[in-house]
Design brief:
With about 325 residues, the chain is α/β, with parallel strands linked by helices. The chain has three domains: about 45 residues, Orthogonal Bundle (434 Repressor (Amino-terminal Domain)), CATH 1.10.260; about 130 residues, Rossmann fold; about 140 residues, Response regulator (Rossmann fold, 3-Layer(aba) Sandwich). About 40% of the residues lie in helices and about 20% in strands. A six-stranded parallel beta sheet has the order 2-1-3-4-5-13, with helices on one face. Strands 9-6-10-11 form a four-stranded parallel beta sheet, with helices on both faces. Strand 7 and strand 8 form a beta hairpin. The protein starts with a helix and ends in an 8-residue tail after the last strand.
């Protein structure tokens, strides 16, 4: 685990600034560029220190990110996947063209393939497919379109979370998720984690609809607001454990609980998802589901290279497992 001092030295800022940025301190006045540098440094320092020899320049590939550059800083899951792709591409000698949702850059004839990170509508998939069939999607399943994909095994991940809470004698288990739409606003997106969570709790006779809360985004501020709604609505009937759909929402939820004098973990346990670099720096340190985001990016790059080299038409989908990381936010005294 990289220390705050190491991140500060690499990013060229003070340790205090790093600490406040990683804890999403909204009172801190720093530029978006500084925040980006700190978050990227924190993610990169968690990656392997053993770099392969860089190869001669091979060509260009595009990374299409479904988020804007600013939104990416609020959900480090997608930032980390992108950095994983870029690390592998650099090792293999490929130049990267970054296309964010609000980017002015466009696909050009020099681009040989695309890695599309995030959620894409039918219309967006069709548009990218018109450009080239050399595409790999990360975090969405596009086998139906005969396109390569890399996904997380959400069923395994959520099952482990639910089983852990039950083993810890929790009977009142809540869920906090977010609401998203495709970038073209063609439809809303249903979170697979919520679907699996609800199904598992129904099977175990522990499901309560009033314990399900959906924020308006997956950002820290949304986590703060939605947890306050849960506290106001449920009062003394508040669940003793919450599974939260990403670490940013979990950090916001944790803050609100503490602000209301509710102890984490003694009164309420919080489990996040992603194991972003910030999870280990908050207090109490956040229990979470570790997703190997770097490996997701690397796998997507390898699938893209395979399709470009072989010109295969049969699509492949790679599903990666996750690990449950237990820290202080779920260990009751």
């Amino acid at each position: 685990m990289a220390t705050i001092k190491e991140i500060a030295e690499k990013a060229g800022v003070s340790s205090a600034t790093v600490s406040r940025v990683l804890n999403y301190d909204e009172t801190l006045s720093v530029s978006e560029e500084t925040k980006k540098r700190i978050f990227e440094t924190a993610e990169k320092l968690n990656y392997s220190k053993f770099q392969k020899n860089k190869k001669a320049k091979q060509g260009k590939i595009a990374i299409v990110q479904w988020y804007t550059e600013k939104e990416e800083l609020n959900d480090l899951y997608y930032l980390s996947i992108r950095l994983g792709v870029e690390k592998k591409a650099e090792e293999e000698g490929y130049e990267i063209v970054r296309l964010f949702q609000d980017s002015k850059a466009k696909l050009t004839a020099e681009i040989e393939g695309i890695i599309a990170i995030g959620k894409f509508s039918e219309r967006e998939v069709a548009k990218l497919s018109e450009w080239t069939k050399n595409i790999c999607f990360v975090d969405s399943n596009q086998l139906a379109h005969k396109l390569d994909s890399v996904e997380v095994d959400f069923e395994q991940a959520v099952t482990e979370v639910v089983n852990y809470f039950i083993q810890q004698q929790h009977e009142k288990i809540g869920f906090i998720g977010g609401q998203e739409s495709y970038a073209d606003h063609s439809a809303k997106i249903t979170d697979k984690r919520q679907i699996i969570f609800e199904q598992l709790l129904k099977e175990k006779g522990l499901y309560h609809e009033e314990y399900i809360f959906l924020a308006d985004s997956y950002h820290v501020s949304s986590g703060e607001k939605i947890m306050q709604e849960a506290i106001d609505q449920l009062k003394e009937n508040l669940p003793t454990a919450f599974f939260v759909a990403n670490d940013a929402l979990a950090i916001g939820s944790l803050r609100t609980l503490q602000g209301n004098g509710i102890s984490v973990p003694n009164d309420v346990c919080i489990m996040g998802f992603n194991d972003a670099s910030v999870a280990k720096y908050v207090f109490p340190a956040l229990s979470t589901v570790r997703v190997e985001t770097e490996l997701m990016g690397e796998t997507a790059f390898e699938l893209l290279m395979d399709r470009m080299a072989t010109e295969r038409t049969v699509a492949k989908k790679v599903t990666l497992s996750t690990d449950l990381i237990i820290r202080e936010s779920t260990i009751r005294q």
